[in-house]
């Protein structure tokens, strides 16, 4: 019927509306009524497609991981896996700063708010979702190239990826919570040296690790300039 909104794209519209509300107003704005209004749909559509707000937020988190994976995919594969990894770390930081509340939701954080969990553990483990795995595979692949290059002691790439994932998100979480206010440039003074130390701990030479992180910063800058 003319004048009726299309419903075949309703899930995507609801997710994008929730993402926008998170960015503009934070999690307190996420209610069936406000999401429905922002998407031009009714509250019944929210419940019909997702069952409730917790399930909608899981879809929002998956959307965030797909966006993160797309951002990782923009980092070219070079002959320097450490530079690639640092460029991806800076990319993750940028994504987090663009929508901190979405980042909180994706990684189960409560720096700025608490999200209502799903009772079913299988539904709330966003870190095991296909969207998360599709993003994380970029990190694992670069870690595999790192091991194959001989610049890291032989070990499982998945283990290195998990350690690096923890390092990067620990830094980002603290930065978003404004713990580095005393530093003029926390990326240069904290994040990059931490990455260098991590690389040296894996078996790389310090001078080479420093050069790779500088190369990674340049690689990331070229990506941002080309956006």
From TrEMBL:
Keywords, comma-separated and alphabetical: DNA-binding, Transcription, Transcription regulation
Q: Which domain of life is it from?
A: Bacteria
| The keyword Transcription belongs to this UniProt entry's keyword annotation | yes
Coiled-coil region(s) at which residues?
none
Mind listing where the DNA-binding region sits, in residue ranges? 31-50
**Pfam families assigned:** TetR_C_33, TetR_N
Q: Which InterPro entries has this protein been placed in? A: Homeodomain-like_sf, HTH-type_TetR-like_transc_reg, HTH_TetR, MT1864/Rv1816-like_C, Tet_transcr_reg_TetR-rel_C_sf
Where does the record place the HTH tetR-type domain?
Answer: 8-68
Gene3D superfamilies, sorted: Tetracycline Repressor, domain 2 (1.10.357.10)
Is the keyword Phosphoprotein in the record? no
Q: What is this protein called?
A: TetR/AcrR family transcriptional regulator
* Biological source species: Streptomyces plumbiresistens
């Amino acid at each position: 019927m003319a004048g009726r909104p299309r419903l075949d794209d309703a899930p995507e519209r609801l997710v994008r509306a929730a993402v926008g509300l998170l960015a503009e107003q934070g999690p307190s704005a996420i209610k069936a009524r406000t999401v429905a209004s922002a998407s031009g749909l009714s509250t019944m559509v929210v419940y019909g497609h997702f069952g409730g707000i917790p399930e909608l937020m899981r879809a929002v988190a998956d959307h965030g991981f797909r966006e993160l994976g797309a951002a990782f995919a923009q980092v070219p594969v070079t002959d320097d896996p450490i530079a690639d990894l640092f460029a991806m770390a800076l990319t993750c930081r940028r994504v987090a700063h663009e929508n901190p509340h979405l980042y909180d939701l994706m990684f189960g954080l409560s720096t700025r708010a608490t999200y209502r969990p799903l009772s079913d553990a299988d539904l709330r483990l966003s870190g095991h979702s296909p969207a998360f795995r599709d993003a994380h595979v970029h990190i694992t692949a670069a870690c595999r190239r790192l091991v194959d290059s001989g610049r890291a002691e032989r070990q499982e790439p998945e283990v290195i990826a998990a350690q690096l994932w923890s390092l990067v998100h620990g830094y980002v979480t603290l930065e978003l919570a404004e713990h580095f206010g005393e530093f003029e440039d926390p990326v240069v003074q904290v994040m990059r040296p931490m990455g260098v130390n991590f690389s040296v701990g894996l078996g790389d030479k310090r001078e080479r690790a420093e050069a790779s992180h500088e190369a990674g910063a340049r690689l990331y800058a070229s990506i941002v300039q080309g956006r």
